[in-house]
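Hey everyone, long-time lurker, first post.

I ran two proteins through the pipeline my lab uses and got sequence/structure pairs for each. Pasting them in order. The first:
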Amino acid sequence: MKPVRIAIADDDAGMRNIMRKIVERDGGYELVGEAENGEELLGIFDSEHPQVVILDVEMPVMTGIECARAIQDRNPRTVIIFSTAHDQYMQDAFEVYAFDYLLKPFKLERALKTLELVRERLTEREEAALQPTIAPSRTAAGRLMLRHKEGVSLVSVEKILLVQREERMTVIYTADGKRYVISESMAEIEEKLPPDVFIRTHKSYIVNVNCIDSITPYGRWTYVVKLHGTTQDALITHEKFEELQKLFE
């Protein structure tokens, strides 16, 4: 696996220096940018597309929480790690599905363990994406009219595997390997899908329950959902995981 690309943001130059040394300590990571506030980090994210962002919460111009929300809307697969001296923001971190929450002053070993776990999770996802998948047989049971820049497509609901946010757009993946970038919001699509088949596992994902192969731990409050019929995967929050378990009881 190539070095994990990381960007950091903290309004304290000393803290940025510490995080820089932690990232550069191991050849498995690459620092692609550092910022003094969330707005600067967002600019780095748009140009460098890091896989991981490590950011403080209390920063001028744009807070870490506001920046994390904007990053999630661009790419929900981005690993978000908060580094802050304030534990009262943990609930906010939970709501943006942070991978971890490092309380300053933290021990070096604590940060290194988090980065090691991040690399393991990213490697697992990368390897899983290379595995061949077999689409299950299914029968037509209603269709959706999807509007996109090329026109309109009619797609069988039963063929939809996954709906997710990508680069501030809604994208649908189907069992026949097609990908539709559409104008409707996640909420609008969710309303059109049968609730006994589809579950909103995360702010940025809607999953076909019948296509779930496995669920494995990911971050502090999230899991990875592997689907048959596609190399794409999804995230599910701890709360939604418990809700999903009840469906199978």
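...and the second, right after it:
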Amino acid sequence: MTTPVINIVEVGPRDGLQGEPECLTTQAKVEFITRAVDAGIKRLEVASFVHPKKVPQMADAEALLAELPLSSDVSYIGLIMNERGLDRALATPVHEIGMVIVSTDTYNQRNQGVPTDESIDAWVKIATRAKANGKIANVMISAAFGCPYEGEVSPRRIVEIAKRLLAAEPAELGIADSIGVAVPNQVSELLGMLKEEFGPIPLRCHLHNTRNTGIANAQAAIEAGVTYLDASIGGIGGCPFAPAATGNIPTDDLIYLLDRSGIDSGVSLAKIIDVSRWLEKQLGHGVPAMLPKAGLFPKDRV
């Protein structure tokens, strides 16, 4: 019998750190990423090519990528908002270009300065340019289950946006519960609709634990056939443009769920917990994840 596999996309160095008041040094970020890779992480969001005045925690994107060790089996993702960000990213060794499209105009305007339709049109051009320059192009629909400004978001709205985004042939389509409002049946319903509409497209989920449903939603995503899940070591992070959007699902707690469920991630839980405890010292405060507090079970599990 084949062991199920879930691939973790570590977003702590980007989505995690951008939600923290502290700005880690470039060298501390390099150590953070190197420690995550040593624990078995193979894909990581490491930078965001946005204006440093908007997200000062990401101001050293180019310097960071110049310092990161390159390996044939590790992929670094850089987030962009527009073609200016793409220009910056293309000048670095980043492997993947990631773009976020927010499902509602109000949130997209606050996040990216334009309505949703404009970001979709920009994505088509960006995907073409990124691929022509040898980069992998991915896109994520943010606030896919709810918006802090406009409220509920219809699954049909997400399907309509996905249709336009998939025309540019991203390597995968991401679905994000950016403010942590989803519950498992909503995750199952939306992912089912996307598969029914578009067939076996690669799907990735980015879930937040703001209302303590993130890990349950991850289980629903796994059961729906998703093979890529975002998570943040220690559970740090949140969008600076959405009120109270705290709490990516912790890599630590997700790996515990996977390990105990017999699902392979290739990641050492013991090492991830060590990274969380190291991160607490760098940030000067505790992290939301449960596993650094509760510890391993059984005690000898690695």
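Reply from user beta_strand_b:
Welcome! Quick read of the second one: The first strand starts at residue 7 and ends at 10. Residues 33 and 259 are 22 Å apart (CA to CA).
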